[in-house]
Design goal:
Largest sheet: 6 strands, mixed
Keywords: Hydrolase, Metal-binding, Zinc
Number of domains: 2
CATH topology of the largest domain: Aminopeptidase
Oligomer: single chain
Helix content: 25-40%
Strand order of the largest sheet: 1-2-4-3-5-15
Family: Belongs to the peptidase M20 family.
CATH architecture of the largest domain: 3-Layer(aba) Sandwich
Shape: elongated
Structural class: alpha/beta
Radius of gyration: 23 Å
Pfam family, one: M20_dimer
CATH class of the largest domain: Alpha Beta
Number of helices: 12
Order of helices and strands: HHEEEHEHHHEHEEEHEEEHEEHEHEH
Protein name: N-carbamoyl-L-amino-acid hydrolase
Number of strands: 15
Organism: Desulfopila aestuarii DSM 18488
Length: about 425
């Protein structure tokens, strides 16, 4: 008989953690290293300690909750996600994967089961990147892909640094924790898109995460009074941005499974009767095919220069973040499918268009992800929602995958990553 998690307890835990940074409209604003993030972290520490876990915090603030197995020499199994949110974001994004890991520890405790391998549930620092850029900071540092001192020096809009904020909230650990090599890594997450709901599928099984390119763009024009300045004598940075934003959208629309989006837009001086002299904006470009994604990037860069000249402005283009796509381990993908099937749940192969911490962890640890439907395909918004039934179904799949890998004494089959 397949074990299942406690749906009522899972719902209770998810509801209670959503109070930290909870908004009036049912969402969550829990940006990385804010007081709300600190309070949620403190609650996680209390719950995981109750579940019998050891707790370690590394120098970038990643939290590791360790349930010891019988054979400490065996490489551990890891799961987890992130606790931080977007501003006015949702209450399932990221935190679902952590709370499901907590519920699994409770379930194992209640059943008197000790796995052969250690089980580690992790809360990665600053996955979202909405306060400090780049995102997936904690997992990137853990994987050796991001420099810690450079990450400490990242600043938010108020000039506060990541390192100082880590220290302020009490989550700047004194030493690092490295459980590698690890046997397997699973990240459980909401889909953040419409596919599963539209097709009536309960479990999504991504074959990997798309590659990602982030840009910061500075458009420089000439500020002036809107009244006396003729339309044909303006160097309007906001007009230049309008041309650029349209072109970026069109290039994404015409591409082969690549998306190109403008996120932040900050005109200066941002006054109703002043022609904007400067605009800062961001671009996010991502896709599964790296060659096609980079072709779109080149077209975007070329267009920005062309359109800035057309509007009589100057443009500075800065690519601030670039991450390769992450193909997942085929044996773990198959394991997730078979676990869902054993539970009577439908499953679907797909690709993750959203970035996740596993994009870094996957580089040296066999990894897979588990998706559950997002109602209306909405995420990064207060309306973000997944049914409690689907939350529990995904947690049950994660539980089954954790038990199978956590009790396995075999090596995972070797996969030739050059084949996919």
């Amino acid at each position: 008989m397949n074990m299942r998690t406690n749906r009522d307890r899972l719902q209770k835990l998810l509801t209670e953690i959503a109070a930290f940074g909870g908004t009036d409209r049912g969402g969550v604003s829990r940006l990385a290293l804010t007081d709300e993030d600190r309070d949620a972290r403190d609650q996680l520490k209390r719950w995981f300690a109750e579940a019998g876990a050891e707790i370690k915090v590394d120098t970038i603030g990643n939290m590791f909750f360790i349930l010891r197995g019988k054979q400490l020499h065996l490489p551990p199994v890891m799961t987890g996600s992130h606790c931080d949110s977007q501003p006015e974001g949702g209450r399932f994004d990221g935190i679902l994967g952590i709370i499901a890991g907590l519920e699994i520890m409770y379930t194992l405790r209640d059943a008197g089961i000790q796995l052969e391998r250690d089980l580690i549930v992790v809360n990665w620092t600053n996955e979202e990147g909405s306060r400090f850029t780049p995102g997936t900071t904690g997992s990137g540092y853990f994987a050796g892909k991001l420099d810690r001192d450079k990450m400490y020096a990242l600043t938010d809009r108020n000039g506060l640094t990541l390192g100082d904020e880590l220290e302020r909230i009490g989550y700047k650990g004194q030493e690092d924790f490295d459980p590698r090599p690890m046997y397997a890594n699973f990240e459980y997450h909401i889909e953040q898109g419409p596919v599963l709901e539209q097709r009536g599928i309960r479990i999504g099984v991504p074959k990997g995460i798309v590659c990602l390119r982030w840009y910061d763009i500075e458009v420089q024009g000439v500020p002036n009074h809107v009244g006396p300045t003729p339309m044909n004598a303006r160097q309007d940075a906001l007009y230049a941005f309008a041309l650029m934003g349209k072109r970026i959208y069109e290039l994404g629309l015409a591409a082969d499974n690549v998306v190109a989006s403008v996120g932040e837009v900050h005109p200066t001086p941002n006054s109703r009767n002043v022609i904007a002299g400067h605009v800062h904006f961001t671009i996010d470009i991502r896709g599964w095919n790296e060659q096609e994604t980079d072709r779109v990037c080149q077209e975007v860069e070329r267009s920005l220069i062309e359109l800035a000249k057309e509007a009589g402005c100057e443009v500075a283009i800065n690519k601030v973040w670039e991450v390769d796509r992450a193909p997942f381990d085929e044996s773990l993908i198959a394991l997730v499918h078979s676990t869902a099937r054993d539970l009577g749940l439908t499953s679907l192969d797909m690709v993750s268009g959203a970035s996740h911490d596993t994009i870094y962890i996957n580089k040296d640890t066999p990894s897979a992800m588990i998706f559950v439907p997002s109602i209306g395909g909405r995420s990064h918004a207060e309306v973000e929602c997944t049914s409690w039934e689907d939350c529990a179904a995904g947690a049950d799949v994660l539980l089954g995958a954790v038990i199978k890998t956590g009790n396995s004494l075999n090596e995972l089959p070797a996969i030739d990553r050059s084949l996919y």
